[in-house]
Design brief:
Helix 2 packs across helix 10 (about 280-290) and helix 9 crosses helix 11 (about 310-320). The chain has helices spanning about 1-35, 55-70, 85-90, 155-165, 180-190, 205-215, 225-230, 245, 270-280, 280-290, 310-320; strands spanning about 40-45, 75-80, 95-100, 115-130, 145-150, 175, 195-200, 215-220, 235-240, 250-265. Helix content is about 40%, strand content about 20%. Strand 1 (about 40-45), helix 2 (about 55-70) and strand 2 form a beta-alpha-beta unit. The protein has 2 domains: about 40-120 and about 260-320, Periplasmic binding protein-like II (D-Maltodextrin-Binding Protein, domain 2), CATH 3.40.190; about 125-255, D-Maltodextrin-Binding Protein, domain 2 (3-Layer(aba) Sandwich), CATH 3.40.190. It has 11 helices and 10 strands. By secondary structure, it is of the alpha/beta class. Residues about 1-35 have low confidence and may be disordered. InterPro entries: TRAP_TAXI.
Length: about 325
């Protein structure tokens, strides 16, 4: 009897162990399936800009944060021509998030726009860069010169064309070349152009690298802010580029707000979480680029002419910036 009792007692742990092993073998694959099931993965494509400009640094850091902190989210960064192309990609449903200058947006987006805002993030400053030996000392000196006005599809191109119009340079024999930031720097270095424009948050890394190894000048544009505001939407304001940024004489630039935009059809909870991380991880974003650290919860809600996404609005309302 004793032997039978022990045998029965011995069989129970063995049976339990078999069941437990079976469960443990099945469970990880089940969890993995839930975690890795493509149907459960939320793809967030972030449209940025040049690899050496602020949008790309900001977007790359934001993608890292989203991937780390939001389950089932796969965020990735796209290199683009920047603002105009980013808005187009958002409208076409080819990306979920994107950065843009405010001045490329329509003054009246109409009811239920397909693209809305997450936040106003920082201001772009329009740089006009030339060499120190160049005779170009003011905007009107560009007459008859070869100048890069920014990549086709960029916010820089939009702002510069407006600036050249108000300055009366449309018929001044100026040769406009459409180059992105990196190509503009290379072309100026080789003497293929006389100057280039670029609109970006301070400091623009490619500009900083150029002025570090090449005698250069950044042209003051402060006097053109008011004419730009008169002839276009009143988004432009003067902002100084201090000596501490590039180690050069301070100048005043034309500044333009930047927004982080989102497709209007994204779920409210997802956009709320993106907005939360954008605000709560500002220190980490600033490590990627100082401009990203200038986000203010109070100024973030000012995104005219676009409304905030309901998920973003809910976050700001609950956090009471």
């Amino acid at each position: 009897m004793t032997r039978t009792r022990f045998a029965a007692r011995d069989r129970r742990p063995v049976a339990s162990a078999v069941v437990l092993v079976a469960v443990l073998l099945v469970l990880p694959s089940s969890l993995s399936a839930c975690r890795d099931d493509p149907d459960d993965t939320v793809r967030i494509r972030i449209a940025t800009g040049s690899p050496t400009a602020v949008y790309h640094a900001f977007g790359t850091s934001l993608a890292t944060i989203l991937n780390r902190e939001l389950p089932n989210v796969h965020a990735e960064v796209l290199v683009t021509a920047a603002s105009v192309e980013n808005v187009r990609l958002l409208k076409a449903g080819e990306v979920e998030l994107g950065f843009t200058q405010a001045d490329v947006l329509p003054a009246y987006p109409g009811p239920d726009p397909p693209v809305v805002a997450v936040a106003r993030v920082y201001d772009d400053l329009l740089h006009l860069v030339t060499t120190a030996a160049s005779p170009i000392r003011k905007l009107t000196d560009l007459a008859g010169r070869r100048v890069s006005i920014g990549a086709a599809g960029s916010g820089t191109e939009i702002t510069v064309n407006r600036l050249l119009t108000v300055a009366g340079l449309d018929d001044a024999g100026l040769h406009r070349v459409q180059l992105g930031l990196d190509d503009s720097v290379s072309a100026l270095r080789r003497g293929e152009i006389d100057a280039f424009f670029f609109s970006g948050g301070l400091p623009v890394r490619a500009v900083a690298q150029f002025v570090e190894d090449t005698p250069a000048r950044i042209v003051d544009l402060g006097e053109w802010t008011v004419p730009l505001r008169r002839g276009n939407r009143e988004v432009y304001v003067p902002r100084d580029i201090p000596r501490s940024v590039y180690g050069m004489d301070p100048v005043t630039a034309v500044a333009n707000p930047n927004y982080l935009l989102v497709r209007a059809d994204l779920p409210e909870d997802l956009v709320r979480q993106v907005t939360r991380l954008l605000m709560e991880r500002r220190a980490e974003l600033a490590e990627a680029h100082p401009a990203a650290g200038r986000i203010s919860a109070r100024s973030a809600i000012a995104t005219p002419p676009l409304p905030l996404h309901p998920g973003a609005a809910e976050y700001y309302r609950d956090s009471k910036p």
